[in-house]
Amino acid sequence: MPCFVYGKKRTTGSNMCFTTNPVVEAQDTTQSHFQGGSRSVSSKFSDDFCVTTPILPGLPDDVAMYCLALVPRSNFPVMGSVCKRWRSFIRSKEFIIVRKLAGMLEEWLYVLSVDPHGNGGSRWEVLDCSGQKHLELPIMPGPVKVGFGVVVLDGKLLIVAGCTVADGGAISPSPDVYQYDSCLNSWSKLPDMNVPRYDFACAEVNGMVYAVGGYGIGGESLSCAEMYDPITNKWTMIEPLRRPRWGCFAFGLEGKLYVMGGRSSFTIGNSRFVDVYNTNMHAWHEMKNGCVMVTAHAVLGNKLFCIEWKNQRKLAIFDSDDNSWKMVPVPVTGSTSIRFQFGILDGKLLLFPLQEAPGYITLLYDPNAAPGSEWQTSGIKPAGSCVCSVTIKV
Predict the structure, then answer these.
(1) Domains identified in the chain, total number
(2) How many angstroms separate the Cα of 2 from the Cα of each of 124, 150, 319?
């Protein structure tokens, strides 16, 4: 994917850039409009949450948790500043559980977009299912990077590794990992990865984050892989790939990690091999029927949706149940663009054109619609050209 910095375009794998900001953690803002997730009421919390004072004096903690979960999401940053106990609860998985039990979960689309006229640089914006736009995210701390991974974990957005590019073209891989808390509207830094890398595959599977392959220091092509466990807050090396691989992407389906696309030192062109990691057996195996030169991808349900560079007017849909592919033509209705990026909201696939035209409309693919009615149009669209997007339920 392309990477943008103030209107200047660099092409480098699944890349994105942010403007430089030296702060360590963006401060909370009382004007944020981000709303929260869900989970269960009686789980044990992390050590910093297990304190003796009640959440709300005079109420059992489970009732108090439920009360806090009913508060509108725009008030979460203010709630988080009341006391450490409230802040710890809002940051925990348990808060998402309780929100879900209370029927308060909201699904929002976080889009990294760039001004098509090159005036505003890249920025994250937030859209809900009606297309309503909310406040932009605070600028991520740290230097401008390219080639990093983007993952959603427990209602939080993770920006993983990447590299900085000096004016003379020198590339410096980074092990840095930053986390955006969608409830508290703030950034923080997580532990560094074991191996600095960029242009690698990255995905969440069963509550763990995996980073695979890419380029390392000195442009070395990597076969190593590692996993982040949010409970231990550590990155651990896992079984490496059988061959180096870079410029690839990853996704999780049915508890397995798939690595597809890109190149390796054993392929002349783009690789059709799919590396599959069984997270229970801790072992890799191969499939031979992957897509190549993928320009957009997204996972919806138990299916992967891809658009290949050579065939921009067809969706390639992979079904993990039988490891099969099918092709679906993309209609011209809504946009004459032949290049798209994907978004997912409300169980539907959104196709955002990369070339804006007067009056263009976002295409929508509903896999659960009646035959012949899968394709529709949507009023949801970013303010600029979509570089990538993730969906967060909180």
Answers:
(1) 2
(2) 15, 14, 27
Strands (E), 135-245: 149-153, 156-160, 163-165, 171-173, 177-181, 186-190, 201-205, 208-212, 225-229, 234-238
Same-domain pairing of 58 and 196 = no
Domain end call among 105, 125, 153: 105
Among the residues of the chain, which ranges form H helices?
A: 61-69, 76-80, 84-91, 93-101
User: Which pLDDT tens digit goes with each residue over 15-30?
Assistant: 333 333 322 333 333 3
Residue whose pair of structure tokens reads 């969706």 in the numeric block:
315
78: Cβ–Cβ under 8 A, 6 or more apart, which residues?
A: 28, 30
Give which of 125, 119, 96 is closest to 36, Cα–Cα: 96
Q: Angle 61-69/93-101 helices, nearest 10 degrees?
A: 80
Rounded Cα distance between 228 and 249, Å, is 17
Task: Give the C-alpha separation, 9 to 14, whole Å.
Answer: 13
- Domain shared by 61 and 113, yes or no: no
Helices 61-69, 84-91: axis angle to 10 degrees equals 70
Do 161 and 204 fall into the same domain? Answer: yes
How far does the chain reach from its first CA to its final CA, in angstroms? 27
Q: Answer yes or no: are the C-beta atoms of 216 and 232 closer than 8 Å.
A: no
In three-state secondary structure terms, 360 is coil
Q: Which domain holds residue 257?
A: 2-28+106-393
Read off the CATH number of the domain in which 232 is found.
2.120.10.80
Whether 222 and 161 have beta carbons less than 8 Å apart is answered as no
Residues 44 and 172 in one domain: no
21, 142 Cβ separation under 8 angstroms: yes
Q: What is the pLDDT of residues 72-113, one digit of tens each?
A: 888 899 999 999 999 999 999 999 999 999 999 989 999 998
- Separation of alpha carbons 306 and 293, rounded Å: 10
Average pLDDT, the chain: 83
Quote the pTM value.
0.83
Look-up: residue for tokens 């980074």? Answer: 174
